[in-house]
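Schema walk-through. Below, the input block comes first and the output block second. Nothing else is stored per chain. Lengths vary across the set, and this one has 178 residues.
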Amino acid sequence: MRDYRDAKAMAKALRETLAARNTEISHSEALEIVARQFGVDTWNILSAKIEAKPKSDVVEFEQAVPIVRIFDVPKAQEFYLGFLGFTTDWEHRYGDNFPLYTQVSRGGLRLHLSEHAGDATPGGNMVVYMKGIRAFQKELIAKDYRYMKPGLEDEGTRLEVTVTDPFQNRIRFMEHKD
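--- output ---
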């Protein structure tokens, strides 16, 4: 997923895409459009953010990517790709007849699925905060997945949809109520 540090590449891609559709814009116009996409008024403001060097004593975390233990690739694909609607970003095996290690994603959520012993413990539990949980739950029910029909639970300050994969890994999708 790109962030503000990729702004120049995004502006270039925007210009190339528009040019392929016979619409020409200048490089500076493309930079201004990208800046507005990141919620700032001008390219100069975004450029200052890009050029700012982080302080050495600032701790900054990026998104965590859980590793989920799987044992059966077709069952994992049926659940994560078919039922939950993820897409495969990449797959890795050390050779023929080796365990699979893969990344799947949907929206801003990334998961690593692994057949490797020791990468994760089956029966794990994770919480995923999200927006649009009602639509997500309706989408899951509409797929008529034979092993699960998750409900929408009202927990007072949040709504939850809980699913369990074929390997007993549980994912609790949560949305805070406004």
